[in-house]
Amino acid sequence: MINVQTLRLTWVKELIFTTAFVALAVLAPMVFHFFGGIGAGRIFLPMYFFVLTAGLILGWRAGLATGAFSVLISYLISGMPAINILPFIAIELSVYGLVAGLLKDKFSVWISLLGALALGRLAVLPAVFLFSNINAGNFVLVALRDGWQGVALQIIFIPVVVKWAGKYFC
Predict the structure, then answer these.
(1) Most exposed among 60, 113, 121, 148, judged by the fewest C-beta atoms under 10 Å?
(2) pLDDT for position 135
(3) Range of lowest pLDDT (33-37, 47-51, 67-71)
């Protein structure tokens, strides 16, 4: 029998892990852009992976914080995402982390993940419609067209990561 120790999450540990997820969410797009070119971030959505994973492992506070802070810090460091879509990406990622964390206690990781993906996209529609001259429908359609590979990878890999991490977090 393997003796696996679990890590009880206190607020200090939650803060440390949230900071780590924010750092990973900021670093990952830079790596993707370096190796895959400027379009790799839109295709593979590396920032989204860490926001959703933070919400599903650590809960809604960590997911919300990871979503909000990673976008802002990434912009301050790298200038990405572009300023014209920065608020919309911030809303989308914040909702992803928040919803993933809220749903994780009541539903399976699959339903929580799919619910977060759907509600995050829907949450950005009113903001795009009200506060920009971008067509909201086109915004979402282009995001889906460009990012379907990233969404597919999230659906495949995030549940595996969450299940693995569940062995170490209680």
Answers:
(1) 148
(2) 87
(3) 33-37
Alpha-carbon distance of 73 to 113, in angstroms, equals 24
- Among residues 112, 110, 111, 138, the alpha carbon closest in space to that of 125 is found at 138
Residue 99's Cβ-side half-sphere holds a number of Cα atoms within 13 Å equal to 20
**Residue 10 — pLDDT band, cuts 50, 70, 90?**
confident
Least confident of 6-10, 48-52, 85-89, 125-129: 6-10
Q: What is the CATH number of the domain that holds 92?
A: 1.10.1760.20
Encode burial over 16-25: b for 16+ CB neighbours within 10 A, e otherwise: ebbeebbebb
Report if residue 6 sits inside a domain. no
DSSP assignment letter at 5 = P
Query: CB pairs under 8 A, 24+ apart, for 72-79?
Result: 73/22, 73/26, 74/25, 74/26, 74/29, 74/47, 77/26, 78/26, 78/29, 78/30
